[in-house]
Amino acid sequence: MALQIGQAAPDFTLFDTEKKEVTLSSFKGQPVLILFFPQSFTGVCTTELCSVRDNIAQYNDVNAKVLAISVDSVFTLGRFKEDQNLNFTLLSDFNKEVSAAYGSLYDNFVFGMKGVSKRSAFLVDKDGNIAYEEVLENAGEIPNFNALMNVLKSL
Would you state the pLDDT for residue 1? Predict the structure, then answer.
């Protein structure tokens, strides 16, 4: 079932690249941008996340936390974060539970891979509710960051 705007965002706890647990509900009181992406070190994922890196001031200006999630291991994500100088939190959903809870999991992906995160964006408001959602079926597309930013600025 797809998440709807206004619905409570499913809470989760995942490990970051520092091997520390990060819990969504710990950010209550501030907006959170959750980005699911298929795989580290791929062209579109690198372009998307580097775009967020380059525009991080826009998120910082409205006190928004950015969390990017994939099914890659914490070790792979750590290397990706380092190589790309990413300035926000990357989380490993290695067990695919959070991607599934957000309706952001491909059953079948390229090269016969199963259970890869769909490229998607969710904006969680200060109260923990979904304020924006965009789940892309085509992994070659990037979320509409202009629309997302308009919603974020209105919160």
Answer: 59
Q: Which of 35, 45, 49, 86 is catalytic?
A: 45
65-101 burial, b at 16+ Cβ within 10 Å, e below that, comes to: bbbbbbbbebebbbebbeebebebbbbbbeeeebbee
**pLDDT, tens digit (0-9, with 9 covering 90-100), for 35-64:** 999 999 988 999 999 999 999 999 999 999
- What are the residues facing 22 on neighbouring strands? 14
Fold of the 37-154 domain: Glutaredoxin (3.40.30)
Instruction: Write down the pTM of the prediction.
Output: 0.95
Domain ranges of the chain: 37-154
Gap between the Cα atoms of 125 and 108, Å rounded:
31
Q: Is the dihedral of CA 149, 94, 24, 26 positive or negative?
A: negative
**Would you call 50 a catalytic residue per the annotation?**
no
d(CA 23, CA 48): 23
